[in-house]
Write a structure and sequence with these properties.
Length: about 180
C-alpha cells in the first residue's frame, strides 16, 4: 500500500507492507535511528515519537495508521542547528547516561511543555510515567525538563551562556539523537 505522512516537516510517500510498525518504518525506511526500539511490548517507551503533537509509542502504531499525519522524531527537535530547550536542558542537568531512553523522554517533555509550559515535578513525572529509564533514577530528567521550562524556545543562548557557568558543554546534539 502507498502511504504519505509528514516527518519532521518533510512530506514522505512510500510503498509499505500494511503490517509494518511505525517504529520500523521510521528506523528502516527513513533511516531515522534516533527513535529507539526496546521492548516491542509497549512497556519501555523508548520508541516514543510525536504524532500530531501527541506522544505515541511507535511500536504500538502501524505505519499505515500514520498515513496523513504529522510525525516528529528526535531528529526534528533541533531547528536550524539550534537545540530545542529540552535538549539543552538534558545537557545542562545531565538528564541522560546511556541515552537509550532519551529521545523518547525528550519528545514527551516537548509535548508536555507545549501544552503546559510550567509543569510541577509531579506533572513531569506523570508525563514520563509510561517510559522507563534504567540509568538516571529520573531526578535529573525532571530537572532537565524544569530547565527547559525556564528557558522556553527563543531564549537567548548567548546571554545564557555568558551568565551560566554550570553547563557541561560539548556536542549533545550528536549524543541525544544517536
Ligand atoms: S519498544 Fe515501544 S514501548 Fe518498548
Ligand atoms: S539514560 Fe540509560 S535508560 Fe535512560
Amino acid at each position: 500500500m502507498q502511504m504519505s505522512m509528514t516527518v519532521n516537516g518533510d512530506r514522505v510517500t512510500r510503498e509499505i507492507e500494511p503490517r509494518v510498525l511505525l517504529v520500523h518504518f521510521i528506523r528502516e525506511n527513513l533511516g531515522l535511528t534516533g527513535t529507539h526500539w526496546g521492548c516491542d511490548t509497549s512497556n519501555c517507551g523508548t520508541c516514543v515519537v510525536l504524532m500530531d503533537g501527541q506522544p505515541v509509542k511507535s511500536c504500538t502504531v502501524l505505519a499505515a495508521m500514520a498515513d496523513g499525519h504529522d510525525i516528529r522524531t528526535v531528529e526534528g527537535l533541533a531547528v536550524g542547528g539550534t537545540l530545542d530547550p529540552v535538549q539543552q536542558g538534558f545537557m545542562e542537568e545531565h538528564g541522560l547516561q546511556c541515552g537509550f531512553c532519551t529521545p523518547g523522554m525528550m519528545l514527551t517533555a516537548r509535548a508536555l511543555l507545549d501544552r503546559n509550559p510550567h509543569p510541577d515535578d509531579a506533572e513531569i513525572r506523570q508525563a514520563i510515567s509510561g517510559q522507563i529509564c534504567r540509568c538516571t533514577g529520573y531526578a535529573t530528567i525532571v530537572r532537565s525538563v524544569q530547565w527547559a521550562a525556564a528557558h522556553p524556545p527563543g531564549w537567548d543562548t548567548e546571554t545564557d551562556a555568558e551568565t551560566d557557568d554550570g553547563g557541561a558543554g560539548g556536542t549533545i546534539a550528536e549524543e541525544v539523537t544517536a
